[in-house]
Design brief:
By secondary structure, the chain is of the alpha+beta class. It has a domain of 222 residues: Beta-galactosidase, Chain A, domain 5 (Distorted Sandwich), CATH 2.70.98. The strands form 9 sheets. It has a 9-stranded antiparallel β-sheet with strand order 1-6-7-8-9-14-13-12-11, with helices on one face. It has a 6-stranded antiparallel β-sheet with strand order 15-28-29-30-35-32, with no helix packed on it. The chain is globular. The two termini are 13 Å apart. It comes from Flavobacterium gilvum. InterPro entries: 6-hairpin_glycosidase_sf (IPR008928), 6hp_glycosidase-like_sf (IPR012341), AFCA-like_C (IPR049053), GH95_cat (IPR054363).
Length: 697
């Protein structure tokens, strides 16, 4: 990302991070650079919400005349130049990948050797209270304490719930350069000052070139796990920025990604949202072959299992699990759904499907790895989630299983019986439980549900919200169509379902007044699984009217999932693997003649590489990581040939099956000469360095 100038807007800033600690760099005013500091686990122990830390300010001696910046994705570092009427300041900043330290380097001309550098702590208060009334009796945490320990300065911010969080920094300088080392620590029982100052002291004793080399090696390895190249420079750049964003915001063993990551901004959403947001946030990591990063969501769910039980009414805690719409990383968020004969909780509280949808992502973690230990841990979680449905549903006079009143996420007056959001997830859950353990004692019940579950409620406009509520108002969520995407249990490859899919989608799209950014990613993805690449691309381009110059997305505050979901939509134009079949180039826009990708991952744990040239797929390489059977639609016209020890079985309609052993690979092609084509960057149309720069937009 290239910036002709930096502005005072967070959403036009330059960001770095290491999955826990991060910075957003933008302007405080016309003559002050602002380095916002964030750490994703700085949360208040009272209400478990994210809290601000503070920011550093760089004030030149002179008046700023020019201020440029660039984000180097490959090396995960930002750099820039400040030109004033007294001289220049060149800066570079990065958040070390393997050490919780932010490095900010400067080189100055003579006239700017005495620029000012200071830390400005924020008031330690729940960010939501900037947007909502402060509850009666709420008291802000005590004020920050600024102090010094030898060469290290620090700011301690005490918490009433116990402990504190500390920002520590020190400066190393000579006549024409200064380097700042910054860290943040938190301790919920005692002071974090010693930890923060020790981290800073330790890093200053190490060779910064060696630390930077380790930092870069991590990022180079991360990016090389997969590769795509598109003829559309804006979309390709956007895609790679999202991969950078994901690894900057979360890693395995670090907190799962909430709505803003380590880039703090005051927001009414300082927690986790589970009725769409976190599911979309993690969605691009699977095909991108970044399963280690994606594992953070699995780890959070595993750690919160005790609270998942506490989230259901006491009568169902013996066998059921649930998760409400909003929670912190401990996953405590009660859900109240009762049988039809009893009173269900207030609107929003009976949002029953959120845990099951999160477990769909958990299932993807298994399907893309085929790691049996993941499947073993998933089974009791999914069983508990589906048990809640079984506990409250009933057969009615029509002999069908029906759901009591539940809530369709965020739809106005969306409490309804037989909610399509829940019917989709219940059906998917029962099918998946039977795949995992067809001999479980509850298997007959799951089969009975699948045979006798009521049909999805529909009317003349297609899928309804539920039995009692038509889809009649504009709604940004596509949760009533969850069976179409991402679950794909109702899909375009089922001819009998095409009219209902088309009618439902067009009706939703005809009411756009309340659409948000993720409405457009949802539209793109649904059209992609329908094989309609041109329409999918159009919706992605419409999304960019909502996306900010640094590719962040705001609804009052940051909501990180929307741009990340767009990365998934881009992947789905190139590769899909739902329903036990791999589809290569299933929804390529007609204007994209040349494409290539390498080591995109699919369900069944396959790595797929492919080259498309002149509008034709030239070859597809399949590598099996665990030895699963493979069914593939390679999208190669004509008689197919195979390079490798494999017997192809033609299943008709362009589909083939074969068996590879673990570690084996095969290349499918039509013309032998095409095998000389490599996975390389394709020729692009459009402006380069589209993102970041403010002028010319």
């Amino acid at each position: 990302m290239v910036y002709n100038t930096l502005t005072t807007k967070w959403e036009e800033g330059v960001f770095t991070g290491n999955g826990l600690l991060g910075t957003m760099l933008y302007m405080k005013d016309d003559n002050t650079l602002r380095l916002e500091i964030g750490r994703t686990d700085v949360i208040d122990g009272r209400d478990r919400s994210r809290m601000p830390i503070g920011h550093f300010e760089l004030k030149p001696e002179g008046k700023i005349l020019k201020n440029t910046a660039r984000l180097d994705l490959w090396n995960a570092e930002a750099n820039g130049t400040i030109v004033t009427d007294k001289g220049t300041i060149q800066w570079r900043t990065y958040t070390l990948s393997q050490t919780n330290v932010i490095v900010f380097e400067t080189k100055m001309s003579v006239g700017e050797r005495k620029f000012q550098w200071l830390f400005c702590p924020e008031v330690s208060i729940n960010s939501r209270f900037k947007f909502r009334p402060i509850p009666k009796g709420y008291v802000a945490n005590p004020p920050a304490i600024l102090a010094k320990d030898g060469a290290v300065e620090y700011c301690k911010q005490p918490m009433l719930a116990g402990g504190d969080y500390t920002t520590a920094w020190t400066e190393k300088n000579n006549s024409n350069s200064k380097t700042y080392y910054i860290s943040v620590a938190i301790n919920r029982k005692q002071s974090s000052v010693d930890e923060a100052t020790q981290i800073v002291n330790n890093v200053t004793k190490k060779d910064i070139k060696q630390l930077l080399n380790i930092h870069r090696q991590w990022w180079h390895h991360y990016y090389s796990q997969s590769f795509i190249s598109l003829p559309d420079s804006k979309l390709e750049s956007f895609y790679w920025i999202q991969l950078y964003k994901l690894a900057s915001a979360t890693r395995e063993g670090k907190p799962a990604l909430d709505l803003m990551g380590p880039w703090f901004r005051y927001t009414p959403w300082p927690a986790y949202w589970f009725n769409l947001n976190i599911q979309l946030t993690y969605s691009p990591l699977y095909a991108a072959n970044q399963l280690d990063v994606a594992n953070g969501l699995v780890q959070m769910i595993d750690a919160g299992k005790e609270n998942l039980s506490k989230n259901v009414p006491e009568a169902y805690r013996h066998n059921a699990l649930a998760l409400g719409r909003v929670a912190t990383m401990d996953l405590y968020s009660p859900v109240t759904v009762k049988p039809l004969s009893e009173v269900t909780g207030p609107e929003g509280e009976p949002e029953l499907g959120d845990l099951t949808w999160c477990l769909y992502n958990y299932w993807l973690q298994y399907r893309y790895t085929m790691d049996e230990s993941i499947k073993a841990k998933l089974f009791p979680l999914l069983k508990g989630s589906i048990n809640y449905y079984l506990d409250v549903m009933a057969k009615e006079a029509d002999g069908k299983w029906h759901l009591p009143y539940t809530y369709s996420p965020e739809y106005p007056a969306g409490t309804t019986r037989d909610c399509n959001y829940d019917l989709s997830l219940l059906r998917w859950g029962c099918e998946t439980l039977l795949k995992i353990n067809p001999n479980d004692s509850l298997a007959p019940r799951w089969k009975d549900v699948l045979i006798n579950l009521t049909d999805y409620p529909t009317d003349e406009n297609g899928l309804m919200i539920g039995r009692d509520v038509p889809f009649s108002k504009s709604h940004r969520h596509y949760s009533h169509m969850l069976m179409i995407h991402p679950l794909c249990i109702m899909n375009w490859e089922q001819p009998e379902n095409r009219p209902l899919i088309e009618k439902s989608l067009q009706h939703w799209l005809s009411l756009k007044s309340e659409f948000a950014g993720f409405s457009f990613t949802g539209s793109a993805s649904i059209h992609a699984v329908m094989g309609q690449g041109d329409i999918a691309l159009d919706y992605l381009n419409q999304l960019f009217g909502y996306t900010k110059p640094n590719t962040m997305y705001l609804e009052e505050g940051p909501v990180i999932e929307t741009p990340l979901a767009a990365a998934t939509s881009i992947q789905e134009l190139l590769l899909q693997s739902w329903g036990d079949k791999i589809r290569v180039f299933p929804a390529v826009p007609s204007s994209w003649k040349d494409l290539s990708f390498e080591n995109l991952r699919t369900e069944g744990a396959f790595l797929i590489s492919a080259v498309r040239k002149g509008g034709e797929t030239k070859w597809v390489k399949i590598k099996s990581l665990v030895g699963e059977p493979c069914i593939i639609h390679p999208n190669i016209d004509g008689k197919l040939q195979a390079k490798g020890h494999v017997q192809l079985k033609d299943l008709g309609n362009g589909n083939y099956s074969f068996q590879l052993k673990k570690g084996e690979e095969v290349i499918l092609y039509k013309n032998k000469n095409d095998l000389s084509l490599k996975v390389n960057a394709v020729k692009q149309e459009g402006r380069t360095n589209y993102w970041g720069s403010i002028s010319g937009k």
